[in-house]
């Protein structure tokens, strides 16, 4: 099993009046990790009109706070691959000391924008996603 890694340095504008990263920015971090993963898989394109995915669901559990200047590491794996959808799981940790900051989950759907309907995930994408698949998700997220 491979894990995709994306590093993010927290910018000042991502913090709020309480001094920590505002909760909405974690979804931006998950999006960045998702885009980088699909680029690595060969399914990312600079042209958004070529994208074939929509987000059906996104959630984030906030464990510890993150702050301006901190370097975060977003570890991304695949927990489920269905006929037309897949589930990504993300661990956001402090890149220096591995403190768990947040856990995220995103369900993506393979989608045809012309017909406005979901479609089966192509076999070549399915096989690439399987390389990042984790079987014991509970233990994976806790580690």
UniProtKB/TrEMBL annotation:
GO terms for molecular function: hydrolase activity. CDD domains: 4HBT (cd00586). It holds the Pfam family 4HBT_2. InterPro entries: 4-hydroxybenzoyl-CoA_TE, HotDog_dom_sf, YbgC/YbaW. Its EC number is 3.1.2.-. Belongs to the 4-hydroxybenzoyl-CoA thioesterase family. This is Thioesterase family protein.
